[in-house]
């Protein structure tokens, strides 16, 4: 139950972070948004160091750095995807991809689920798909470019989660600190190389920083959940984060929520209940 609560908290934080990051990327070049979000995340993780501890063994450095590279790609691809929109379609697409890869890795590593867990896992994946049922009258269809970006963002998120899970369990927040330091460095380097193409628009500083802080909280909760439970279950529960993004897009941007999405939200609740029985 603690694992599920941590995963649900991670999902909620990811959903809010994605909404704010995508909204911020509509106001300025996506790299300008990430330039603020990534260092803000690093600041949070450094503040957590004295309380949660951190070790920096070679394995921690390696997996943390790998997660950082994936995180930088995920930040840029995801925020650009959500800036193009529509959020209520593209966010769930990234979630489905980000769930499938860790589930495969978890099962290949020998994780086993009971009947309720297998049904819950399948229902959770179905819920992610249903939440993306935004195609219809009154709903904007995403472009091919937006869909390709969404697939790339989902893969990058999945790799980030897998790499974090591989880090030693006694490393504290070490993998998060290393990962965020690497992602911040990669982001700033990319921004420096592309400086002339970033435009003159000022980023939404508060919104971008808040997205970074929430992303850091989401990463921490995921790491704690994955250390106490199965990667396959934690990854799928975490991948329900589009529910938060969709609801925020509905309340703030007036994006329409379709019947299929409402069914998906109900299926997600049922899936969580079944997974709690495992």
List keywords for this structure.
mainly alpha, 11 helices, globular
At a glance:
This protein is 78% helix and 0% strand.
* Secondary structure: helix percent: over 70%
Average the pLDDT over all residues and give the rounded result: 80
Q: Total number of β-strand segments?
A: 0
Shape: globular
- Which segments are poorly predicted (pLDDT under 50) over 5 or more consecutive residues? none
Rounded to an integer in angstroms, the radius of gyration calculated over CA atoms is 18 Å
Number of helices: 11
> For the terminal residues, how far apart are their CA atoms?
9 Å
Major sheet summary line: none
Instruction: Please state the structural category.
Output: mainly alpha
Strand percentage lies at: under 5%
Q: Can you write the helix and strand succession as a string?
A: HHHHHHHHHHH
Notes on the protein architecture:
The chain has 278 residues and is mostly helical. It contains eleven helices and no strands. It is globular and about 55 Å long.
Explain the layout of strands and helices.
Layout: H1 2-24, H2 30-52, H3 58-84, H4 87-108, H5 115-131, H6 144-166, H7 174-193, H8 205-228, H9 231-238, H10 242-253, H11 259-276
